Structures are given as structure tokens and as C-alpha cells.
Amino acid sequence: MTAPVPLLSVENLTITYASDxxxxxxxxxxxxxxxxxxVIGIVGESGCGKSTLASALINLLAANAxxxxxxxxxxxxxxxxxxxxxxxxxxxxxxxxxxxxxxxSFNPVLPLGAQLTDFQHHLPQTRAEKRTRARAMLxxxxxxxxxxxxxxxxxxxxxxxxxxxxxxxALLMTPDVLVADEPTTALDVTMEAxxxxxxxxxxxxxxxxxxxxxxxxxxxGELCDRVYVMYAGQVVEEATVDDLYHAPRHPYTRAxxxxxxxxxxxxxxxxxxIPGHLPDLTAPPPxxxxxxxxxxxxxxxxxxxxxxxxxxxxxxxxxxxVAP
Amino acid sequence: xxxxAEINPRRRTALAALRRDPMGLLGAILVAGFVTMAIFAPxxxxxxxxxxxxxxxxxxxxxxxxxxxxxxxxxxxxxxxWGARTALGIALTATGLAGVxxxxxxxxxxxxxxxxxxxxxxxxxxxSSLPMVMFALAVITVLGPGTSTLLLVIIIISIPGYxxxxxxxxxxxxxxxxxxxxxxxxxxxxxxxxxHLLPNVVGPLVIVxxxxxxxxxxxxxxxxxxxxxxxxPTPSWGNILYDGYTSLxxxxxxxxxxxxxxxxxxxxxTFLGEGLRDALDPKLQLRVPK
Amino acid sequence: MLTYTIxxxxxxxxxxxxxxxxxxxxxxxVPGDPAAVALGPRATPALKAELITRMGLDQPLYxxxxxxxxxAATGDLGFDVWSKRPVLSMILEVFPNTLILGAVALGVAxxxxxxxxxxxxxxRGSLIDRVLAILSVSMxxxxxxxxxxxxxxxxSVWLGWLPAIGAGEKGDLGSQARAVILPAFAxxxxxxxxxxxxxxxxxxxVMGANHIRTARAFGLPEGRIxxxxxxxxxxxxTIAILAVGFGxxxxxxxxxxxxxxxPGIGSLITQAVAKRNYPLVMGTVLFMTAFYLVVVTAAxxxxxxxxxxxxxxxxx
Lengths: 324, 290, 316
Prior knowledge:
Number of domains of chain A: 2
CATH architecture of the largest domain in chain C: Orthogonal Bundle
Oligomer: heterotrimer
Helix content of chain A: 25-40%
CATH architecture of the largest domain in chain A: 3-Layer(aba) Sandwich
Mean pLDDT of chain A: 87
Low-confidence stretches of chain A: none
Number of strands of chain C: 0
Order of helices and strands of chain A: EEEHEEHEHHHHHEHEHEEHHHEE
Strand order of the largest sheet of chain A: 6-7-8-3-9-10-12-11
Strand content of chain C: under 5%
Distance between the termini of chain C: 11 Å
Structural class of chain A: alpha/beta
Number of helices of chain A: 12
């Protein structure tokens, strides 16, 4: 039996950054699969490699980054090895991104309308038609006066409006893959709730897949179907949202859930944290990266790389100590 | 000028950085050379720089006169060596005094009452919105050309830049936690200024001062070239250049010899200033050429 | 935008007013009376009396100040002590020469400076970038009149390619063009270095900004990103500096104009200073300051149009 080609897959992706201290291994054999209609969460602390993964998905790695192995496949085709023109043809049209900070992600000296029209440069229509389309998309994401917003500069909008505009920009070309990088971090709690509400409404009529990159477990719980947990550049667990909350298997995932303020069962004066710190990514340990912080650690954890243990159709973990 | 000593805490890093920066090092060597020349001019100069010897006018360069003689038979090399004393003397005095006055006015503007700050800023803006050379010429017309007028003009022109730098730094620092903390425990303004503001604002000022030295050297030479600065017979690179210019066809060697120290000194001070800036405070911007 | 415009122009007018006041006051703080100072050793009682009347020095102080401001506001800058011609017409006669020199110098600086800056950005971090950096600093710091004299010696005296003095024959564009080459290069060279540095720095900064990454993420062609998204921002500091530059280039052209005996503001004012010709010096200084303020203010307003963030700072 052959599985159908998934819409998006990341295979064995290893990316290093050149630095003064030697190459930093930002991603190590990362992998994920996303099918049409799915909303995927990618969660981890800062420094876990999730931003590098997001950059790789839209093919915009930093100048000092190097892909040492692996592939990002859109409908089976590796997009990392394409010539620059072909990469450009995919960006925005097939894979679009909602950036973390909309204030700095829009050009400060061009009105929003000009940028939203430019972003549709893949299409053959006239600028007036593109502007109408941009207007409709702004209305779709709940901006009350889209005609006015088209003439505004980004700094003239409120935080919530900026984020809505960023989402509208990404949706303009109805991309197959929508990557949202920390879509709610720049917002206060009320705005965050509104944006999550908006994203939920949008996922209903979005044909492709949405990837939500965040350190915020609450956002994952509200929006996603499946989750990949990342730690120190590796995917350490793959699970459905239900399993993530109720049956996490990797010790890191468990620690993460235990530290989430929303899931504390008793009142506590201090927020719990995971003791210890991330390993040095210029020289990752030979065994498990989480070994020095893990409550279940055994001697082999320090010496042998952990296996990717398939636990069910939808759950797997990178650990010596989990048993199927 | 105690460029390095005043930034004591970071002294070692500054020296280390200069060592890694070949242009900064070249600048330091050139500056050291000119400073030596200025200090030991009486010992180094082979002849009296103002002694006229018309019998030997326009002598070509030879072993007796390494750079030849001018239209009055004066030894050009000696005049250039003494010119270093004129150039550095004026440049260091003017930037030093302007730096001190600018420091005081900047502290007053930044720390004093707001109404005074408003007036001072308007004054700074007015002076710095004058075209520098025009202002200099106006003052020289009124006071008459000469070294003291030159010093006065340079000091007045330079003060606003330094005062604004200090004012900006003072305003920023006042928001800093450690100064707020001092204030809540009732520290006197004098203590806050002397113990906290001063040590923190002096570093950037010294860098800016060192980067202005070549500008002042250039202005002195330029005005002396127009015979509106240092008055002959006192040797200045500017008036040597002018003497050479008037006899360009008989003795082209004169302008070459007089221009060279000007080029080398401005380059030397600039490279040193840039090196210091890169080592200590890379955020400081190069000022607009004048 | 209107509030900003009014504020900006008001500030320029206020500064000009203060400058005039200071210049007028300066004449009175000098020991000795201005007429005697202006005439120097040649002063005879008759000449002095005539000059005092002509300069209005026999009137009460408030009347003098009032007249000075009223005349200046109507463009009357007084009369030359020696030739008795109106100062303004003497200035306007030579000003075009200086304007041409400044414009050509700035044009040369702009073309060379922006190209060198872009080369540095394209090859950033390479040996070329480092050599250009040293070259830029050197060009900024070397005095213009030394370049002028060396240029004169090499290209006019030794090679005989270019004229050594003057601004060329009237009506002969070719000779005027040849006469402006050396002075313009001498005046503009420090700006070549400065603009190269500025363009490099602002271009690098803008190309690293988040919104450029966004534009790339939407697959916009790199050419359009540079021309429409980056240059609009990177050019802002360059325009601001260019305006200041134009004002200060015209003033610092004094030295170079003197070297090439080129008729212009420089030759006019240096001769007037040497003869202590008060009305001519003060008139020229006032004229140049006013011109400088107009250019700088215009540039500020242009920047506010290009960068909406600037004008909103003033709106609140």
C-alpha cells in the first residue's frame, strides 16, 4: 500500500549556522508531514529551531545558514534545491507566511494598499483589480473599514489591525501552505483571543495546510489538529492535540505541559520551570539532547542517540525510555 | 590631549583593538610623529624658521635645505616643523577648550531647568545652522585676523556639537535605573553629576573631540592660506602653502612640501579617531564634512 | 503635514532672525567705532562722516536696528563701502558661478559616492569593500584646497590639460565646463567619500530589515525590492545630508574658488574681509545663511513627505 504524497513534508532536515564559535546545529534531522486541510502546531522554547524551520519552509534562510542534508517537499518536489527563480515563484503564491511582528514586517513608507497589491504580482490582473481583491481580503479578516486601511501606513494601525492585515496579506494568494510565526505574541490577551477566533474561522474555508509556530501551548490547543514538539533542533515528539495534553510521552513534552500555567492543578507562588539548560549546539551531546535535564535518564541516554519510537498511528517520540 | 588616559576603564581594550586595526595603528604612528615634531620643533628644525636670507631664495632641495627655501630664502623644512607646532597647538587648544565648555553647557541643558534647556538648544541650533566658513569670515572681519580670533571662531563653532552630544547622553542617562535609584535615596545633584553623569559622558566626547582635530587643522590651514588666520611670519602650513602657490611656476616643490604634512596630519588624526571610535563606541556617527 | 511645515519654516525664520541680531550686535561689541574700523588707516574725518551717515550710525540704536531688519527683509543689504554699489546686486552677479560649482561638485559626489557605496554593498566584507572603506575615509579628511592646489599643479601647470584660473569665457559652454572640472572635483571629493559611506551603511541597514524579508517572502523580484522598498528608505538620510551638503559646499568653496581665482562668493567675500568692507561681508554672510536655511528646510519638508513617520512625530 502506498501512502498518497502529502501536501508538505520535511525530511531529515539539518541546517547549520556559521558562527565565531564554529557551526551551530540549529536543526538536526527535523521532519514533519502535513496534509491538506490539517492545522499543524510546531512548539518549543526559544532556541529550539522552530524559527529556522519556518525560514526553511519559505525558503528564506539567513545568509550564514547552510542546509547540510534533507529536503522540504511541496507535493513531493524538493523546494530547497530549486533555482532562485523557481523558489521565488513558490514564495507568496504556494507557501505564504504570517510574520511575527507585523509592525516591522510591513514597509513603513508605503501605504498598505500598495504593498497588498504588490504581493499579488504573480497574478495577471490590473492593479485596480488586485486592489479590489486586497480590499475584499481585509474585509474577510474582520477589518471594519478596508478602504481606509488601504491608504494607511502600518504605524497608523492598532496592534490587532496590524495582525489582521498581516494575515490578510498571507491569504491573498490562497496559498497551499500558510506558515504563521508566533501569530499572537505581539498582542495582549483580548487581541490574542480575537486573532485565534479569526484563525479558527479561516481554517474552515482554507483548502491547504496551516502551520502554527509558537512557544505558546494555549494557541496550539485552540487551533491545531496535530503537534510537533521541538527541542534543541530536533523533533522530539509528534502527537495529536488530545494526546499532547492528556498522554504526552516524551519527558520533555511532559515537562512542558507541566510548566504551562493553564494546566497547573494547584495554586503556586512561583511558576514551575524545567531545571537545567539547553545543550551547546555547536557541539551537541552524542546521546539524547535532553539527557542532562531528564528525570528518567539512564546511562545509555548519555551515549547512544535515542531512537524515533512509533507509539501509534499518530504518536511517536525520540526517546530511549518510551515503549510502544 | 589625554585621549587614552581619560577612558581609563576601557583602556586595555582600546589599545588591544588598535593593535588589531592596522589603519588605526598607522594613524597613531602619524599622530605620534607630528606631536614629536611639534614638541621638539626647536631641536628638530635645522634653521630659524623666520630668518630671511634673500640671497638664497628659491633654493632647490639639497643637503643644506632638504625641502629648499622660499621666496625670502627661509628654510621650508624648518617652517614645516614649526608649522606642526602652530597646527597642533591651535587644534588641541581649540578642541580642548570647546570640549570643556560644551561639556558644561551640555550638562546644564540636560540636567538644569527645562526653560534653560529650551534657550540653550535654540542657541545651539542657531550657531550650527550657520555655514561654518561664512561665520568665521564674519567674525574675522570684526575682530581682525590673528591667532586669537581663529581660536575664538573655532571654539564657538565647535561648542554646539559637543554640548548637544552631552545633553543627549545626560537626558538618556537620567532615565537609567541607577540614577533614578540615587535620586530616590536623596543624592544631591552635584553627586549625581560628578559620580554618575560625568564619567559616562566623557568617553563619547573624547572620541568626537579626537575626530574633530583634523577638521580644525584643516580650517586653520585654510584661513591661514587666505591670510586670514595665523599671520606671517609665524609659520603655518596654510601660509607656507600660500607662499608656494604664489611661486608655483618657479618652485613647484614648495606646495608639494607644504601640502604633504597637511594631508598626512589630517589622515593620521582621522584614522586614529576612527580607530578609537570603532574600538570604544561604534554607534557614534561620522560628522558631516565641513 | 501643514503643522509640520509651519513649525519647520517658523524655526528657520527664528534662527535667521537670531543670526541677524547677533551679527548686528557683534559690530557694536568691538572696541572703536565701526566706521573707523571699516575705513582702517585711510580714514579721514570727511570720509568717516560720510560713511557714518551712509551706514546710518548717526541715528538712535533702535532706529538702526529697525532699519537694518526692514531693509534686509525687503532684500536691501546696504551698499558697498568702496564702490557704492548695492551689495545684493554684487552678490547676485557672482552667485551663479558658485551655484554652478556647488551643483557640479555635488553631482560628481553623488554619482561617484553612490556607485562606490553600492559596490561596497555588493561586495560587502571582501577586500574591495575594505579598500573602499579606507579610500572613503581618506577622501573625507583630506583638505579641499590641498587637492585643488595639487590638481592645479598636475593638470594645469605640468600637463596643461585644464585652465588654471577663472570660470571660462562668457557664453562659451566648453571653456566654462573645462574650467569647472578641477574646482568641482576638489570641492566634491570629501563628499564622494562621505556619500559612499552613508549609502553603504543605510543600504545595508535597510536590506536587513524585516519588511524586506516580507517582500522576499512574497516572491517579489529583487530589483523591485531594491528600487521600490529599500531605496525609498535608504535614500532618506542621503537627501537630508545632501541638502546640508549643498549649503556647506557653497560656503567651503571659498578656499577652492580662491585657489582657482574663480569669480564667486568666495572671491567676493575674502576680498571684502581683507578690506574690512562691513556691509559687503555682512550682506554676503546673511545671504549665504538664508540660502543655506532655505535649502535645509526644503530638504526637511521633502523628507517628511517621503517618510510618514517623521511627520507623525510632529503631529502629536
